[in-house]
Amino acid sequence: MNPDMFLQHCFNALTLGSLYALIAIGYTMVYGILRLINFAHGDILMVGAYFVFFGTFAFGWPWGVAAVIAVLGASVLGVAVEKIAYRPLRDAPRISALISAIAVSFFIESLAVVVFTGQPRPVLQPEWLVSEWQVGGVRILPLTAFVPVMTIVLVGLLLYTVYRTKPGLAMRAISKDIETTRLLGVRVDNIIALTFCIGSALAAASGIMWALRYPQVHPYMGIMPGLKAFIAAVFGGIGSIQGAVIGGVALGFVEIMTVAFMPDLSGYRDAFAFVLLVLVLLFKPTGLLGEKMEEKI
């Protein structure tokens, strides 16, 4: 493989890994606070992409306006899911919350099929994101640079929120001991809702960028990215924001480079992610940066 082609694959891997990282952060934030895997997270990604589709095609909004409204709409949806499906089960056994999460995922997907139909729809790509750059022998789309840059900005804002603000302090306190935090006067329900709001906003942002990279939307588009982002979160150490970013980028490189160096195995591309999950669970269940936590059943 020549150096230009290798560099091309590196750019593609960084773009894909950045998307996985953004989605994985939503999983890891919810798990860090509630010890709950929000399996509806990938479907919120899908809803965010559809909001942009209808904003640009049906209402004629500029792409940037549609993207902002999509992020806000997905945030509201995330809070609603938490309030309706998860909050009543806060003190129930973990298996009940898990079943609820799976049910919410199926409900959103089925509702999307009814409302949006199952037909894939094309996505408007802003011209400034798809006008090709030629750097030596490497062809780069502005989108390839836009996705990692946006990921860095959003992760930076999230880390500032978590480690430099009072709501962030409350999130970290709840992740350690929810009952003690409640006794200290923290409005735990509001902070948990904020966590879902932020995680859903990141999912919508990643969904918008995913739809730009693979320019179509359909009701089941969030399933595979959601599962792979979950694998990335487990690999990096679920519960750790930094681990989610590392796991997402690592998974992106594993996928792209495996296909690049072993093209005959390209049909098994998705399988490599699940093999990675099995290996992590076998040899390092807490992931790269995760801490061992006791689960209450």
Put the structure in a nutshell.
With 297 residues, this protein is mostly helical.
Annotation keywords:
ABC transporter involved in vitamin B12 uptake, BtuC; single chain; 297 residues; 12 helices; two-stranded antiparallel sheet
Please report the first level of CATH classification, the CATH class: Mainly Alpha
The rounded Rg comes to 19 Å
Percent range for β-strand residues: under 5%
Average predicted confidence as pLDDT: 91
Do you know the CATH topology?
A: ABC transporter involved in vitamin B12 uptake, BtuC
SS field, number of helical segments? 12
Characterize the largest beta sheet: strand count, sense, and whether it forms a barrel.
2 strands, antiparallel
Give a count of the beta strands, DSSP E runs of length 2 or more: 4
* CATH architectural arrangement: Orthogonal Bundle
Instruction: Please mark out the parts with pLDDT under 50 across 5 or more consecutive residues, or reply none.
Output: none
**Helix share bin:** over 70%
User: How many discrete domains?
Assistant: 1
